[in-house]
Amino acid sequence: MVIRYLMRMIYVRLLRALLPIGDAPEIKAEEKAALKKAFDNLLFETGKDVIKTSSFQR
Fold first, then answer.
1. DSSP state string for 25-56
2. Which of 22, 39, 45, 52 is deepest in the core (most CB within 10 A)?
3. pLDDT tens across 3-14, in order?
4. Based on the structure, what is the number of domains in the chain?
């Protein structure tokens, strides 16, 4: 039981070291708006991973 706990603690510390949460890049407001618009209008073919052509801005 103690060994399992220690292994979990080591694993958590390694993850924190490898994946720092606070280092995400800042995104400008206009870029956020563009991403939101793109993802809100994103449509896929039914049962496929193909983006419908109606999703693209013309």
1. PP--HHHHHHHHHHHHT--B-TTSSPBPGGGS
2. 52
3. 777 777 777 777
4. 1
